## 1
Amino acid sequence: MMNSFKKIFEKDTWDEIFESISKNRTRTIITTIGVFWGIFIYIALAGSATGLENGFDEAFSGLSKNSMGVWVQSTSVPYKGFEEGRRFPFRLSDVDYLKDRVPEIEYISPGLQAGAFSGSPPLVVRGTKSDNFNLFGNFPTQAKISVIKIYDGGRFINDEDIKYERKVAVIGEGTQERLFNQGEDPIGKYIIINDVNFKVVGVEKFAEGFGGFGSDSDITIPYTTFAKMYNRGDKFGWMFISGYDYVNPKYLEETVVDNLKVLKTVAPEDDRAFGTFNIGSLFESIVKFSSGMIFLSLVVGIATIFAGVIGIGNIMLIAVKERTNELGIRRALGAKPLEVKIQIVLEAVFLTIIAGIIGIIVGALLLFVINIGTANLEDFPFTNPTVPLAIVFGAFITMITLGTLIGLIPAERAVSIKPIEALREE
Amino acid sequence: MIVINKLHKSYNMGSSSLHVLKGIDFNVEDGELVAIMGSSGSGKSTLLNILGMLDNADDGTYDLDKIRIENLDEKTAAEYRNKFLGFVFQSFNLITYKNALENVALPLYYQGIPRKERQKTALSFLEKVGLRDWATHLPSELSGGQKQRVAIARALASNPKVLLADEPTGALDSATSIEVMALIQKINNEGKTILVVTHEHDIAKMCKRIVHLRDGVIVEDKKIKQNILKNV
């Protein structure tokens, strides 16, 4: 028994297997295609799922993952003497109120805007070029909630700007393109917004913004400057809020809205008074989607590998039938049943492994090509499609195990025929 | 070399049973060349299969070189076949994807002999049957006579005690048959014990002794004057 098992590691055994495999080329190729296809699909799918996940990660990398936005709509339920359909603004004092009441809040950034979802975008002029751009008034805290990337040499709005109501502006990449000549450094140059001169202090790298109303062609000026220019006083329409890392985004959203309802005398059951969106929930559903994809690819992949291995077993069965005579000769010449079995099983396992390796290589090549092909597509969230080594390893172990198990069937068949009957077979 | 006592063998054919060997007593001395004759159904192939340990007898004893052959499991049978017996078949039974040398070396592979030694031995046996120059040819590139000579070389390769040939000339024309029989005579003259199953009288006369089987019993067993062939 031990002697026969030792054969697995002997060069002679493998020479015999290589010979049998390489001299029956058609059979070998047909046999391996199933497993090759399985592992190829598996790698391609799992890699793509990871690529999508990474792509989403990258697309949302500009955002704090448990942040939210809230804005005023109009009430839909009459409450405490107020009629429905009432509109009211936020006031700057509400910010402190919320911070006091909801300790989970890390930052609040109230915002003003002209253009985008309400108001009309102002005309902006620079030299002979002019266009309308959405204008935002923000606090520096905005940069803490959504990661704002400023190109080298520039900066975002700072506390001094707010304090002195400075006429400085941070412009988007698109804004720069439309107002400045190519190669011209906009930092320190002046643009005219609503007949007022603003000094450009930074160019913002575009990242997918909150709620999707940000674009690459925005202009951001200090909140206080904006409020004065548009005569807004302490009123504003929306704010961004981010919680500490440990805060559940859903909880944050509910708590903020509940507190605002009390503050603004809105019916507790009124779901329309405030509009909200929640990056956390959005992010959560994307993570769920990605992990769903990965799970799906795992299931599909394993099922395909399984089908492939069964295919190998199937063809090995036919091959054993075809080789009945050969196996009969071998046994007449002194091959022990276990040796015949080991040979058949090793052939199956070897074919499975070879097919698997080719599948992994071709799958990886495909992912590589897709990655290069999509590298320049900004809108397509697909980055760095990799398959964790553990998963590749797992697939490998699965393949070897299944290959062995499935190889046992034809092996058993091969020795179940008496050598004398096998020899009669032509 | 071979001692057989009251050998019985039946095959179950559904409800009825077919009694193929009905008490065979049969001895073969060292160095004999015996032809086993009989029409089809006489039991000669069954006898050869039992001698070749490809089949088990129901009753009786079989000793090969003083070793009692009984109740063999498939593993021991394989071991004994490899060590004690060389087979030559009517249809050659060469492995189609192995060349002549590899075919001859196969029994040595199952003895666990290292490759280099295997090939050396195999080549010497190919030389013995006059096919040294054909060592790297596949069976499909050989004539019928050449294939049978490769098969004989393979049967000899493991240096067996007995050579069992089942209709070795059955698939060959008469000229080639004589060629093969001449080779068998040559090997026999070197001391090897050989049993040839045949239904052709010409072939049987080239042996030293003829055993006639009919309906599962030996009806005639006589030494003859061997028709000695010139070796080509």
## 2
Amino acid sequence: MGIRQCSIILHDAATNMKAFRQVEQVGGRKNRDRTSRLLASGGRGGLLHCNTRGEERLLKTNMMRRPTILFAAAMVGLLPALPALAAPPDSLTLGIALEPPGLDPTAGAAGAIRDVTYDNIFQGLTKIDAEGQVVPSLAKAWTVAPDGLTYTFDLQSGVTFSDGTPFDCSIVQFSYGRAMAADSINAQKQLFAPIAKVDCPSPLKAVITLKQPISTFLYDMAWGDAVMVAPKTAATNKTQPVGTGPFMLSRWVPGDRIELVRNPHYWGNAPKLAAVTFRVIADPAAATAALLSGALDAYPDFPAPETVVKFQHDPRFTVDIGTTEGKVILALNDARKPFSDIRFRQALAYAIDRNAIVQAAYSGYGRVIGSHYTPSDPNFVDLANAYPYDPAKAKQLLQEAGVKPGMTFTITMPPPSYAQRSGQLVAAYLSQVGINVKLESVEWAQWLSKVFSQSNFDATVIAHVESRDLDIYARPHYYFNYDSPTYKALYAQYIAATDPAAQAALVEKLQRQLSADEPNIFLFALPKIGIWNAKLKGMWSNDPMPADDVTEVYWGP
Amino acid sequence: MRNLRILIGGAMTLIVIVTALVALVWTPYGPTAIDILHRLAAPSAAHPFGTDAFGRDTLSMIMAGAENSIIVALAAVGLGAVLGIPAGLLAAARGGWTEELLMRGADLTFAFPALLTAVMITALRGPGAYTVMIAIGVFTAPVLARVTRTAAGVIWVQDYARAARALGRGRGAVTRVHILPNILSVLTVQITIQLSLAILAEAGLSFVGLGAQPPAPSWGRMLNDAQTYIYTAPFLTLFPGLAIALAVLGLNMLGDGLRDAMDLRRRRRA
Amino acid sequence: MGAVTHYLLRRCATLVAALFFASIIIFIVLQILPGDPALVILGPDAQADTLKALRHQLGLDLPVWLRYLHWIGGVLTGHLGRSTAYDSSIANLILQRIAVTVPLAIFAMLLASLLAIPVGAWAAARRGAVDGSIMAVTQIGIAVPDFWLALLLILIFAVHVTWFPAGGFPGWWHGTGAALKALVLPVVALAVPQAAILARVTRGAVLDVGLRDYLRTARAKGLREGAILWRHAMPNALIPVTTLMGLQFSFLLAGTIIIENVFTLPGLGSLLFQAIGQRDLILVQDLVLLFAGLVILINFLVDVLNAVIDPRLAQNLGQGLQ
């Protein structure tokens, strides 16, 4: 690594245009071979240009299809004697575990869509930063009327989409209108339900009127589902995304990689990286190998907790154990017997050694939780010890609940490894207190229909990844069928509260209520295990939102 | 030499069967008993094959896994035999359109490799030992049908079979009295081979997650888990694979030895 | 000749019937598959009206028979349809994946043949101790599951010494070198068990044809043994060998899918698993039909070939499956 990108300017543009892109995207040592090959084959008296900025300019030229110049090559191959002067590389290859099904965050729920596109390709009026705070994005400022019903957004000027389409208030009207329309296929359509209308008093001012005040509106509009899309390209964003972000798609090889390059029309400061490649490597061993060999520069959400130690002892890598909003729970169907009995649920909580589960399922990374809330939130209450591991107590509670030894129920497990591993461990612990667990693996499609939609299950292991999602326990007929008037009343108070101190107090009460009722067994908070090249700066430590935002990432010396 | 092969193959098969039987009543540790403190422990006196990510004893899991492999293989080949052998006999006995229909049906079934069938059954009703049994059984049936048809065809043109027909005996009776006993040895060999293929197929399907579900031990799934830990606990990749190879090798040698012994007998007779 | 023509015609008719039945079976299975494609795309928070809108967009609200006709009509006219997950042409998706799977299978078959045919022929020609030890090795080769061999290869060549990648595929446009390197371990893992089977069959075939007549006649003409083996015995022995290679195809296909899984290669196998997971129904239908169709077609070609070469052979074809 540590390769300076150079550019060779040739006159025969058309044939080399492709070569340029290839070299541009490979980065690293592979460039050497290609450079020599290209020089050998097509070195027609070109001009050598050896700085990254030159290459950046070339890239832009390329994108605008001006038929002049050409391709970038690796310095190492050309001037091997000068490695000390080498500038840092400006391309990045990231590993992701799941391939996004399409690249349109307004037409699908998969987290992987957001991993690739959030703020990199698509932007909304507001965005969530690395700390989880709402910050300006396409709206540079806003005011909220005292009644909480009117939001006035000042839009950034000079913004265009990567195809040149200008961004203004009409785009806001279009994007939100599309998400709210009757034939909308937005996965989070309810986010837009409070919107009554969007007005455009001037091209750079958007006034949004709500039907009722909603304290989370600015946060909601930062979701990937609320990004700005242009009328001309909205229908094809799934395969040819056109957004306002600093990057744009250059190539997608299904099943393998998604390659982004700088958006030449970007309105803000150009990102330091010229090219970003997302490679789909789900297998833990292959992911480890790819990082070790340098085929990947970073894996923001590393799938092999067992091998983290290997990287921690290797100075070439940075290991950053951060937090996500993911709460892994053993969700119980509270409408079924004996799960409807609080003593039975508490018995399950006592019977499971959650520290051991974190140890075995996540090599000790991840933190035991005692309620449906993550430690990353300022209002988090640590209730991890509400039900310490105590099989004797569990047996006693089971007896009180009238549950006979040999009682059997089924845990339905979706495919992710946290679910598969936790399910097996839970089954092993429960067998020690005389409960037989039948494990049933299902595909994601079946989990959604059977468990989530039809509520046809006993228990399941699942991670809820939305932040601050205490509302799901107040929803009627949500899949785990928790129905507590006390909780609902508390939640209503919380939603109505405007004073931050009162809100914080209520959030605490809600967490305690959940811990006391134990509608589900709260297992642990999913960690974000980030591993990357030690020279790489600006990677996100935490995952406040599903995103691999690389807009601020750069290579240090 | 040939007897030696039968002997070695038989001994290996016996080892696997005895292991499975012993595992029914005794394993060094519970095959599903977890021990987080001793997870991913390298082979030692306490755990000769080491422990997995949950601290389960690999030796115990392999012993219990033998049971799974044998049961799935027997059930799958049994299913294949129940479907395939009568079809083959019928095709040979009747010929004509019946044969054409049955044999093309066999071709069609054969066009769905066990993996494809298993993937579809899994999508329909979830993964598991039954899914694998059915998938392998469905794939075995046309093979046995073809072998039966061919072997029976050879007998049908023999003088004694023709004579029996000429004497007015029904096709069913001739099949029962003359055909079946004479093709039994061919079928035995083929079934032995199919059993070894079934063990391989079961391991492969479990490896991709379609087979027996946890915590039921399965050699294929153990290997899949082992891949995850190939950096931290490479020894996990070794033993389940050896177990599969031993079981398959034993059955193959037994099958080949039996086939050669039969050829020899036939040649002597001729 | 008339008999062979008649046989071929009948075989063609059954080919078409088999493909038709295969398409029906595949379609029916996918119709009763639990799980709603729209729900998979839109996730748990999707609202009822949104799901309905998407189902309409995907054409899932049409009657079953109409969907079958759309699908099969498209396939027959060369339109494989659109993938709902990728929202792109299925033909393109399959072509991209074939660029991994087909080279993998072909290289494996080539390597297996290169290893097996000379070794098998040599064993047959030498007999004795050479034969015995080669046969013992092949016996073990057959018993080793390809995916286990793959793991062992990863352990040695990707973990201990990092000569080859443990998985993944860089694509052909980044230079053939890197792509070939990524295929080395998968190809070896696939080829070794295949080679073991092929070597045994080659040996048997050479023994059958070679030692009977060729050696005697050729030797009488004063030819050397090697020349006899290669120029005279082998061409004849190759008939059963190629027949077996055709029949092995189904196993090779399954093996390729599993090996792709081990090495996380973006081939047809991983596409199939992914398509099922995402309930990308048309894509699953096309892929399963493609796999089944290939096996049917290759069985057909083998039958035809053999009927043409040697009408007597057609009878015994089915036997060589193991």
